[in-house]
Amino acid sequence: MLESQKSDSFSLKYRLTRLIFFLPSFPFVKKIMGFQNLPGSGPFIIASNHSSHFDWIVLLIYLTRYLKRHVHFFSTIKYASNPLFKYLVKTSQGIWMDPKEPARSLYVGLQFLKHGKIVVVFPEGTRSPDGKIRKGKTGVAALALLAKVPVVPVGLINTHKVLPRGAAFFRLARCEANIGKPLTFDNYYKDYEEAVDQNDLDRVLEIEETVVRIIMREIAKLSNQEYPF
């Protein structure tokens, strides 16, 4: 069972794991801007672009150090057979996501938010090989609309140069992160709830696509890009 926000604390194993990753990764992070935009309490979603495994390292280390709270990442189930990923997801209290069972993954994410937690989503669903932003999937919109929580957009810059896709070691490059102001979707909650209750799938999808487009445009802006979708 999930514990409440008030009892959210870091285990010794988690602290040591975070330190182990912080020491070698620190030289590759140039700056992170916008910490003041992170909500001081309550549940919310962090949504970021994704082009490297270095993304979750940066977000995990720096967000937890600032917030003093766990951030729970969605991690694709295909990495569950990798001992290192399996250890990291377990230690950081991550959420395994099975593309074959998206409804189940969504339900688990909703339970985390219901218990006052912070959930991290990469809306693109997979890493961009060249750092260019890709089309966002509607899962993050559904999560935000059902949980009725704010979404904090984050733009990561040059993480794909630090740790390119397929690379085993860091490269001589430095990355940046920009944390945007929380996005709220109060104007969509009622219409979305009615569409869900009426099983109006076309309307549900229409609202989700509108919301994910708003989120992705902010992420693109924060990563010095344009969202063409």
Strand content: 15-25%
General shape: globular
What's the end-to-end separation, in Å? Answer: 39 Å
Q: What is the count of helical runs?
A: 8
Largest sheet: 7 strands, mixed
- For CATH, the homologous superfamily is named as Glycerol-3-phosphate (1)-acyltransferase
Helix share, percent? 40-55%
Structural class: alpha/beta
Number of domains: 1
Poorly predicted ranges (pLDDT <50, ≥5 residues)?
3-7
CATH topology: Glycerol-3-phosphate (1)-acyltransferase
Count of distinct strands: 7
What is the topology, as strand order, of the major beta sheet?
A: 1-7-6-2-5-3-4
CATH level-two architecture: 3-Layer(aba) Sandwich
Oligomeric form? single chain
N-to-C SSE string, H for helix and E for strand: HEEHEHEHEHEHEHH
CATH class descriptor: Alpha Beta
Q: Taking Cα atoms only, what radius of gyration do you get, to the nearest Å?
A: 17 Å
- Average residue-wise pLDDT: 92
Structure explained in plain terms:
Helices cover 42% and strands 15% of the residues. It is globular. The model is unreliable at 3-7 (pLDDT under 50). The protein has a single domain, classed as 3-Layer(aba) Sandwich (Glycerol-3-phosphate (1)-acyltransferase). It has helices at 12-25, 54-67, 83-91, 102-114, 139-147, 159-162, 186-197, 201-222, and strands at 29-33, 44-48, 71-76, 95-97, 118-121, 151-157, 175-179. Strands 1-7-6-2-5-3-4 form a seven-stranded mixed sheet, with helices on both faces. It is of the alpha/beta class and 229 residues long. Helix 3 (83-91) links the parallel strand 3 (71-76) and strand 4 (95-97). The longest helix is centred in the last third of the chain and has 22 residues, at 201-222. The protein has eight helices and seven strands, in the order αββαβαβαβαβαβαα.
